[in-house]
């Protein structure tokens, strides 16, 4: 049996490290992008963006939806008649929602998603949601949240969505035993893996939020203990704590070390022994370590530079530094929530350059000066940096891809190794495979 080794920082960590705070031009997607993974997760929900044709094109392009597909999202387009006051926006919205629900009777939860255009013209979607919910209840619940990118980054779309759902969660019974809630949208395969691990540990019942069906909302109350599966859910955590739930502080479940510490936090809260945790997780830990060894050969000693984009940057930096031996040139993040990141910061190498927010021109200068082996950035920066000779990785792919848990640890490392392998194969001195002529 392999014992679970308690996690200790290799040095003093970055818990009290200085952070460069920048407030300049940013390069990020808007929160509407979160619809792409949320509409796949909550299978009877529909996301109606109230916005412009640009919003519609963004969602359509990001999702790769073909014209004949029936996705569970759409855009109610604000056009010139709405802007000129020739049409009543609320009447138009009611008409669109009525037609939508007639066409899609399977919808049980409808989100009205605000955008930059709807917020600029001061369209009150909160009041519209209350009006429509009263009209279509009990069959359909209508909620609203903002996906505007004016002051946010793209992963905050999920945070705003889940926070809007928290008031709808049923109260748990006052005498109910403690329950565990895992908070954050996870791929179904990852959720199933975690559910099995928690079951083997004897922790239950375990609820996942968001659920796969809007009719399966988990109860919440003072007996609820919750683990954050994603690091960008500050408002959701605050809303759950206001309902009496208690957050279990832990690193995030990225890599072997992070997943073990994440499970350990739940095990400690529910009285599971260290021996049981070691026995249950040993097979998965051993498989993950063996798979990671192959990726470590490609990544060890390489330097990585993080532009602020998804709020996953600090947990990813911890994983890359400690588990595959990469050096951290700079770790930028859009927002640094010190309470939620305390365990992660303690595990970063001391002296790590941390930045919060962005002044993109200054950060580009620092990136060029650092000459990293790989740059993690948004789509808007990736192509220009590639043209300058730098190797890049799209930050958004790290949100779309299942990366949590033991079974995905090597897949996560491979996402960083793949661009480096591609660059090596395309370099002028690289050997090319022999081409055989057909006779």
The total strand number stands at 14
Structural class: alpha/beta
What value does the average pLDDT take? 89
Gyration radius, in Å: 23 Å
Q: Helix segment count?
A: 17
Fraction of helical residues: 40-55%
Low-pLDDT segments, ≥5 res:
431-439
What overall form do the CA principal axes indicate? globular
Widest beta sheet: strand line-up: 1-12-11-10-13-14
Write the layout of secondary structure elements.
Layout (H helix, E strand, L loop, with lengths): L18 E5 L11 H7 L3 E7 L1 H11 L9 E5 L2 H4 L5 H15 L5 E6 L1 H5 L4 H12 L4 E6 L9 H10 L13 E5 L4 H14 L4 E4 L14 E5 L5 H9 L3 E2 L7 H15 L4 H26 L3 E4 L6 H11 L3 E7 L4 H10 L6 E5 L1 H11 L3 E4 L1 H9 L4 E3 L2 H4 L8 H18 L13
Parallel strand pairs: 1-12, 2-3, 2-4, 4-5, 6-7, 6-8, 8-9, 10-11, 10-13, 11-12, 13-14
